[in-house]
Amino acid sequence: MSDLRPLRLRNSLSGRVERFDPARPDEVRMYTCGLTVYARGHIGNFRTFVGQDLLRRFLEWKGYRVLQVQNFTDVDDKTIRGAGEAGETLRDYTTRFIELYHADADALGVRRAHHYPRATDPEYIAAMVRLVERLLERGAAYRSGGSVYFRIAAYPDYGRLSGAAVEGRLAGARVDADEYDKESAADFVLWKATEDGEPTWDAPFGAGRPGWHLECSAMALELLGSGFDLHCGGVDLKFPHHENEIAQSEAATGEPFVRHWFHCEHLLVEGRKMSKSLGNHFTVRELIEEGVSSAALRYLLASVHYRKQLNFTRDGLRQAETAVGRVNALLARVPESSASGPFVPADPGVRACLDRFEEALNDDLNVSRALAEVFFALRQANQGLNRKDAEDGAGVAEWAAAIRSMNEVFGVFEMEGAPDPSSGEDLVEEIEGWIRERRDARRRRDYARADAIREQLRARGIALEDTPDGTTWRRLD
Ligand SMILES: [Zn+2]
């Protein structure tokens, strides 16, 4: 892969745009902080997931093999509380939200990670226990009040990722209820003493449950090894989560944890911070139910540079619908070539366009310039079609192939939208089939499956209703 023109990408650790060089020549090991599964993710979360997906797709487009791990945080205060309130086991409760995550991510065309470790999977709990033991051995952790804490004084580099911001926070760190258990206010919990009724795991240093930061370090080290290439997350995770991940991982292994940190900025809705109380809080499903196409939503989320705040507006969505529609209209007229193997354009103009596209994304993922090349190719293809000149046939096909190649990175054109909930015998039969499958799932107490079926139908505009006489269905307006 030495002949590749290198990607230059901002590294949050240095604060600079740097040449991205994975440790192994052709492979990128990538870790993504996933959702804490006590609620359905909102479009702010999916801005980050789509941003990371774009980076992964571009690396794959350039020829790298990407190994991606994305965790689910399925044990913390919120998941435990939620499961208790729902009267479900923690496992069942969090499984439901994991299924919903997959439904939303699939709808948006986010490529699936290769591993989705859950913090409570036994092999990762074992890895967390080993990590804490190692930190205790090395004097970087201490036991207090039944919990184990990380000793920040044992890691002099603490604060490198989030920089100056952390100094103020450390000095003014809020005094927690368990403050008196800690040597220093900034020390953070690795392993928590549990209260009655909370999920608890045995460990040589005392029964308890893992802290959030510990979970990600253990899962990342277990599946990717230390010194992996790329760690991604929303900008809000920089401090304390990622700072703590670095500290505990490097204190345990004595090696650099991650080569390159990638953070996506926040999403605003109509210029304001998204919040339930402002009524501007959306999930992917809610927007799709409203009739927004998943392609337009993905386009809007993917078309703003990852380091800029993304202002999500209705106008922006309409523009996205139009942009996607224009490209799809062209592609519908020019069928995909059946030629196999990588696309190598003969036309120098097409080659130059693809080169500029790659250069734009090599430049710290400049998506605006890259999209400009998509629309440049669109104009060339449309002009060719309008000339209706037989000799232009090959040219049009090449421009369309170039758009399809660029779309491997953006993933927004020719997307499968939500299936049309049209009437007809087939649909009725299909829904009856789903109702039977859901009933069977409930009989074998597979509520996650049952709920996933309900959600999938709901996403298509079909609501199920359970009555004493069985399940009926109706169309949502
Ligand atoms: Zn994490």
Give a written overview of the molecule.
This protein has 477 residues and is α/β, with parallel strands linked by helices. The chain folds into three domains: 257 residues, HUPs (Rossmann fold), CATH 3.40.50.620; 143 residues, Anticodon-binding domain of a subclass of class I aminoacyl-tRNA synthetases (Four Helix Bundle (Hemerythrin (Met), subunit A)); 51 residues, no CATH class. The strands form five sheets. Strands 4-3-9-10 form a four-stranded parallel beta sheet, with helices on both faces. Strands 5-6-7-8 form a four-stranded antiparallel beta sheet. The chain has a three-stranded mixed beta sheet with strand order 12-11-13. Helix 1 links the parallel strand 3 and strand 4. Helix 3 packs parallel to helix 15, helix 4 crosses helix 6 and helix 4 crosses helix 7. About 3% of the residues have low confidence. Bound molecules: zinc ion (ZN). Zinc ion (ZN) binds next to loops.
